[in-house]
Amino acid sequence: MLSLALAQFVVVMNTSVVNIALPSIRLGLGLSPVELTWVINAYVLAFGGLLLAGGRAADVFGRSRVFTVSLAAFGVTSLGAAVAPGAGFLIAFRGLQGIAAAVLSPAALSIALTLYPKGHARSVALAVWGVVSGAGGAAGVIAGGMLTTTFGWRSVFVAALPFVGLSLVMPSSQGTSSTESSDRPTFDVLGAVLVTGALGLLTFSLAGITHHGWLSTRTMGLFVIGALLLVAFVEVERRSMAPLVRLGLFANPSVRFANAAMTLVGGAWLALFFFLPLYQQQVLGYSALRTGLTQLPLAVAIMVASTQVRRITVRLGARTTLVGGLVLLTVGLAGFSRIRVDATFLGHLLGPSLLVGLGLGVAFVELTSLGTHGVAPAESGLASGLVNATRQCGGAMGLALLVSLAASRTGSAAEPGVAALTEGYRTAFLAASVLTGVATLLALRAPRPTALSTSAVDNHEPSQHP
Length: 466
Fold this sequence. Notes:
The chain is mainly alpha-helical. About 80% of the residues lie in helices and about 0% in strands.
């Protein structure tokens, strides 16, 4: 389990450590605001778009084998990003990092769920997963600040290498070879291409709204083509003998809800960690190190909430716990929408940071649990890949949309400079709170996991999985 936890740790850390370095990357390579978003989105979009394929690869080709190969690839691409000579190379290596992470993360989680398939042990495993994710976020913000300040932005990509090496020399599991690989030797390449292309075009259309407008030929054209590719993906999956996503999985109401809600939460989550360090460094004048240290309470709050969510769920129930977490998250994001040019950490940032951290910790654990509840062991890789894919893809599309909204608000602000930037960031945080507010309304009607325990989904009969 330690090797699996380290792998998840490094994937999460890779996101937060880069976020702190964004202003330095922009200055170092002379990136435009749109190019800067693609330092994040190239990773997130490849990660989210290929998580479905990654989860299926773990199921088909053997989880331990796929875990080891993808972990090594993550290390190699991290080194490539560290030595990238220009913006194009950096964005390309970030995309390759995302591909490696897309295979690594669901492989690790599916091994963990196979080792601890049900009951208290499964709850503990999911809690550990949440703790590790929170610890990765906390380590990333601290390491990002220290490394950027001391050695420059390139060092943040090197930070992953020791953890990758340590995880590689540890045994990942005992007896976790995928038994279904001999039964399903084929891999749905066409499905993977269609869904990744669709999500990429949809995100690209949203990213260009600022310059081209909502109803421009470019925006609408990309959106329509992306939507058509999604329709084609569904049709291919419906007809395929070995689909990337077995559509019958969505007959499970828990899976349907968890992925819909995770899409919305993901959009707010990624935008938060993109805009907050930019606001702190560009408006408040914080150094990279100070930015990392002041984001530590947020990361620690995620970790603390993740450790306690199972205990709270036993007392209050999954739905009540999830709704409470989403309310905290929404209120915290709304609090960030009241930031000012002369804001102080104690007066304006600490309170919202703690609320957001607690809310995210609860929401991520509960939605991951719901997204894998009642799923056959043979499809645990698919289910874990799906719930992570919706978070990442929702994050990519949410970030593209909120960057466009923030840029539009900044451009129309009455006062130029940092005041205009602040207006844009306030708009982005407010829009993010709307996304999580919608997720909260959905959670009021979330299915109760106990109601699914005796369903056909849990029986694992062959007739239920054509």
